[in-house]
Amino acid sequence: MTDTPNYMKAKAWPFELARQVMHRLDIEKKRGIERGDRPVIFETGYGPSGLPHIGTFGEVVRTTMVMEAFRAMTDNKIPMRLICVSDDLDGMRKVPGNMPNQELLTANLGKPLTVVPDPFECHDSFGAHNNAKLNSFLDGFGFDYEFKSASELYKSGAYDDMLLKALANFDKIMDVMLPTLGEERRATYSPFLPISPTSGRVLYVPMKSVDAEAGTITFDDEDGSEITMKVTGGNAKLQWKPDFGMRWAALGVDFEMFGKDHQANSIVYSRICKILGAQPPVQYVYELFLDDKGEKISKSKGNGISIEDWLKYATPESLSLYMFTKPRTAKRLFFDVIPKAVDEYFQHLNAYQGQDADQKLSNPVWHIHKGTPPQSGTPVSFALLMNLVSASNASSKDILWGFIERYEPGANPEDFPALDNLADYAVRYYQDFVKPEKTYRAPSEQEGAALMDLSKRFRAVSGDDATDGEALQTLIFSVGKDHEFENLRNWFKAIYEVCLGQSQGPRFGSFVAIYGPEETADLIDEALAGTFLTS
Description:
This protein has helices at residues 13-30, 54-73, 102-106, 126-140, 150-156, 160-168, 170-177, 183-186, 240-251, 266-275, 307-313, 316-324, 338-352, 357-362, 364-368, 382-392, 397-407, 417-434, 445-460, 469-482, 488-500, 508-515, 517-528, 531-534; strands spanning 40-46, 80-86, 146-149, 192-194, 209-211, 216-220, 226-230, 236-238, 255-259, 282-286, 289-290, 331-332. It is an alpha/beta fold. The chain folds into 2 domains: 7-178 and 240-290, Rossmann fold (3-Layer(aba) Sandwich), CATH 3.40.50; 382-534, no CATH class. The strands form 4 sheets. Strands 3-2-1-9-10 form a 5-stranded parallel sheet. A 3-stranded antiparallel sheet has the order 5-6-7, with no helix packed on it. A hairpin with a 4-residue loop joins strand 5 (209-211) and strand 6. Helix 16 packs across helix 22.
């Protein structure tokens, strides 16, 4: 087995991207560009037009995974920073449907998000409210990041130099932008969006003239009056595509990932960044998350799962695993993906200790836990716990621990905190999602005879065999064969549908081992008596 990891050949996608960042630094060095103590900047952008959704978390957690791979490859000798920028100077273009005080928001359409009143009436503005939400869940996951408000960056002068460069290169930026626009939009397009001194709205108006030397733009305000104002100090902002490239240049960004909806525009961002005298960062495009109907998750719609939703029913680590797995594949992000993600996390965790150094670098838990995953997992799967809840009609995790302690003598919540948490999650998930969807059916004649036989054989099991999942699984197979099921998969499906009201479940022998052969026999007898059909 390999004892020393080879970071330069690790195949996991965070290492591939980290190597691209290293290559970027090598190119800078060859060109004579001295970084000195300037850190490598990893950036994520956020549009606070609605409450943060889980896709926002995904972008940040994935970026930190790249940072951790870079840290390992460079032996932590090159400083790094993660900057999260909120585009909160953008004008509010539509009112999110999932917000209170709709009339208040409608009255402030077009104004910067940091000027629009907070519909929840707990922050200085709508933008401040959503920024606070973003910071809250990033802090909750322990991310080491720096929050930057676009409003503050524009108003403080942090962007002034680049805004003046953009003004001096106004025609070059227009040459990049105009071919990307329709004929009607070209006639009125300007990369600069002035903020009206009278209405406070972000204006999408053409420029009558620009004066790079004076640093000013001239345009007609909403009331028709001609206004000349400086582009610095927060008086104006850039359209979102030029803003993207300008932000890279102003903040010295070395790496940024973004969703597939940005892919076609990434060339535009890069060209503008170069016009402003900077080298575009390493970029990575990930696929978008879809809701249960296959539609893109949207802040304004509020569809899909929120961070709070996921963490009500599953561990933070399972959420991180879902973000790690196949980032370039479009995935449904709805409640039914949660149980599988939970069990897959523990499968990876249990496999980790037996892997060699290079295999560990490809294991998701290395990336989830920054190279130091915990030693122990859990002896009982989430799927199995949910079936225990179903069979026992458990309303609390305390009931589940009665079964767990019999299956795993000496186990207790204090020594198995991960399992204790899973038991809590299982009860909640079952009550909210599984129980309402349960559909029991009566057995066929063949199935009824086989289930009656299985019940009798379970009652005859004793001693160590009562908790031996493999022996119990063999017994179940034998009953299926004795009753001449052509496809044993149909036999197991019958067990689940008749006794548990679902078409599939965990390995049934393991379920019986923890629930108990006698108790399972009682469950079968109740199902055969039609108890569940009339309940």
